[in-house]
Design a protein that fits this description.
lipopolysaccharide transport protein A fold; 13-stranded antiparallel beta sheet; disordered N terminus; globular; 723 residues
């Protein structure tokens, strides 16, 4: 088995050259125009610079360009020189994200001026229908008479406005003259003049009544108030019979030249908070606050993230999905100034939540010189230098903190060379100096010290391909086939530095990950854990490409790689685990993905993550997968995590759809999380019924059962923000 896996790294492949793909075009066309019959009795006649069509006609103008347009009608006349069209019968015009329907229309494709009667238009944050209509696309102004306006997209809307005349300015506003507001067939208000902004978000209500084992009967609600392009938000008001009342305002802003961001907050008066991870009772007043802001001024960018939690379980208890995605959110402020070959960054990262262990950076200033050529020589140079005050703090003060200054600078030189036009060889050499100041705090006691080390190595890589123009398959959707092979060897040698990691304050830890860590600098960035190294990274990547939908895409992509440690450190084996990343797309709607990791010394699988996804772009999609993980150093299957997961989405018709997901814990032999959701379009509202069951393994709570109804106004439908 081990010999087979190692031999996979030496697989040979076909070599060759690239070629172009061909495409066919069977549409009858003028320059910038495509005109085709769509009906079984469709007929098109080209005569004296005009096209006459009947029996169902499709016109495409400048397809694929920013000013593209498309028109369909039962019959029409197009004049090539003037770009005028006169169309009758089931006319539909699509242009610039808008759709207009009418029984008769006169339109100019160049000037974008339109006249129509008995029209119906959409996608201007509402739907219109009425009698006479005139439109000027360049001026972005439309005038209509005897119109009906609604945000309900049914032919018989529940609510609407009828007006004698309107001026429509898409993206800005609508002005109604002589307007009556109707609820069903009942007029409820009359307005001689009414202006509706298309820039501000209208009022929106989201309601979720339901029952959950850990909450009791509950009602979650979100009330969004009208905002503007620069500012908006909503108020969350929730009540749970077993947990009490909770609320929190959410804000969003866009300050144009000063950036954009959001603020999310939640304040719960919890009647049953239970205990933290140490067994201590949690406060009944629980808070969560999240602030994000980003801005960019030319080559200067800012990112500010602020996360505060009153306790370690507040998000788990009230926003479980967000907790699963990020169990320990960080707080930091980062500034980046970019130049062509350089970058200067400032990072301040304090700890706001005492229940998390954190490496504080107060601050960390880094200057990076990107790899660049040294004048007219064949040599390239890169560097990375930083100065920081670091402080290691432990969760809940379980150990005393320690901190200190650290100055680090790395300089490397490269000599890239190409042989035979396809073989790249890049030797490198570099040096690093790190200065550690005397530590503060009682958690460690180190004096001032310096660490010196050098590193060298070389990368050898190649890329070759062969094209098979006759390779085709309707079943596999193959139109030509290109095979690309990319073998790579990357050797790294780092002599033992004058200071071992155990001799230094260990501010940074080596990242715990299921992937193979980088072996070259500065990609490997656990500065305090750097030690001697004598290793060769071996990789082999094979790709198969074909043409689908007028684009080249990867049909098959397999990367196989490992490290050969010529001088293993304590606790290391001669060979690292073998990693395999595989992607296969046998058809445009079928995707297979695989990430695997094999420990060849202990002869066990460390990671298996395989999945297959079906997305036929019709009324259904589904995914099935399996995730397996065995922590390094352990060999017993009793220590494994093994989860089988599935999801299915099915659309019955325009009004009804269904979705479900399952997570099966193969180790314990039971479903750990499964949910079922039924969606329905209620005309003016959208809603869904959700049923979810989760086991309480690993928490102090009981197994959880949840059933809920969700409703949103259709003008702004949305799921619960934290669902």
């Amino acid at each position: 088995m081990n010999g087979f896996l190692r031999s996979c790294l030496l697989v040979a492949a076909l070599l060759g050259t690239d070629s172009a793909f061909a495409q066919k075009n069977t549409v009858r066309n003028w320059k910038d125009w495509q005109i085709d019959a769509t009906g079984p009795n469709g007929e098109i006649v080209f005569e004296n610079g005009s096209a006459y069509g009947k029996g169902g006609v499709l016109v495409k103008y400048r397809e694929g360009q920013p000013d593209a347009a498309e028109l369909t009608a039962d019959k029409l006349k197009v004049t090539y020189k003037s770009s005028d069209v006169t169309a009758e019968g089931n006319v539909m015009l699509r242009r610039e994200g808008r759709t207009w329907r009418a029984e008769r229309i006169k339109y100019n494709f160049k000037t974008k001026r339109m006249k129509s009667v008995n029209f119906r238009g959409g996608n201007i944050k509402g739907l219109f229908k009425g009698g006479d209509f005139e439109g000027d696309f360049p001026a972005n102004v439309y005038t209509a008479r005897d119109i009906t306006f609604t945000t309900d997209d049914h032919s018989n809307p529940d609510y609407y406005i009828k007006a004698k005349k309107v001026h429509i300015m898409p993206g800005d506003k609508i002005e109604f003259y002589g307007a009556s507001v109707y609820a069903g067939k009942l007029p409820v208000a009359y307005m001689p003049y009414y202006k509706r902004s298309l820039q501000r978000h209208p009022w929106n209500i989201h309601l979720e009544p339901g029952y959950r084992s850990n909450w009791g009967t509950y009602l979650r609600s979100a009330w969004r108030w009208p905002g503007s392009n620069r500012f908006g938000g909503e108020m969350n008001l929730d009540y749970r019979t077993e947990r009490g009342f909770a609320f929190g305002p959410d804000l969003k802003w866009n300050l144009e030249g000063w950036g954009s961001g959001d603020l999310e907050s939640y304040y719960a008066f919890d009647d049953d908070p239970m205990n933290d991870s140490r067994g201590s009772p949690l406060s009944s007043e629980r808070q969560w606050l999240s602030f994000n802001h980003k801005a960019k001024w030319d080559d200067l960018s800012l990112l500010s993230v602020f996360n505060y939690e009153s306790d370690e379980y507040v998000r788990r208890d009230f926003f479980q999905n967000e907790y699963r995605e990020n169990a320990q959110p960080q707080t930091f402020l980062e500034l980046n100034q970019n130049w062509t070959d350089y970058n200067l960054s400032f990072l301040a990262q304090p700890r706001l939540n005492d229940h998390y262990g954190t490496l504080e950076r107060l601050p960390d200033l880094k200057f990076t010189g990107l790899r660049q050529r040294i004048k007219d020589t064949p040599f390239y140079y890169e560097q990375e230098s930083s100065i920081a005050y670091l402080r290691r703090k432990y969760a809940n003060e379980s150990s005393p903190w320690f901190g200190g200054m650290r100055i680090d600078t790395l300089h490397q030189f490269y000599l890239p060379q190409t042989y035979f036009g396809w073989l790249q060889f890049t030797p490198r050499i570099g040096g690093r100096w790190t200065r550690y100041g005397e530590t503060d705090g009682s958690g460690a006691n180190f004096n001032d010290q310096d660490r010196l080390l050098m590193n060298t190595g070389a990368e050898l890589s190649a890329k070759a391909s062969r094209f098979y123009p006759d390779a085709s398959s309707k079943w596999l959707e193959l139109d030509g086939l290109r095979h690309i092979i990319q073998p790579s060897l990357n050797y790294v040698f780092v002599p033992r530095p004058n200071k071992k990691p155990s001799d230094l304050p260990g501010y940074e830890y080596e990242l715990a990950t299921s992937r193979l860590l980088p072996i070259i600098y500065p990609d490997y960035n656990s500065i305090d854990q750097i030690d001697s190294q004598n290793a060769l990274r071996i990789s082999m990547r094979n790709r198969l490409q074909t043409r689908r939908n007028d684009q080249v895409e990867d049909f098959f992509d397999w990367n196989l790689y490992t490290d050969w440690r010529l001088n293993p450190l304590e606790g290391q084996h001669g060979f690292a685990d073998i990693f395999s990343d595989l992607y296969i797309r046998p058809r445009s709607w079928i995707t297979l993905g695989s990430e695997m990791r094999r420990d060849i010394d202990d002869d066990v699988w460390r990671v298996i993550n395989n999945s297959i996804t079906f997305e036929p772009q019709t009324h259904w999609s589904t995914r099935v997968g399996h995730f397996y993980y065995l922590e390094p150093g352990k060999t017993s299957k009793a220590d494994r995590d093994s989860v089988v997961y599935t999801s299915l989405a099915y659309r019955f018709n325009e009004d009804w759809s269904f979705g479900t997901s399952h997570f099966y814990d193969a180790k314990r032999g039971q479903l750990s999380d499964h949910s079922y959701t039924l969606y329905h379009d209620f005309r003016s509202w959208t809603g869904y019924l959700n049923l979810r069951m989760m086991d309480g393994e690993g928490s102090s709570r009981i197994d959880d059962f949840q059933i809920s109804l969700n409703f949103s106004l259709k003008a702004r439908p949305r799921p619960p923000k934290h669902e």
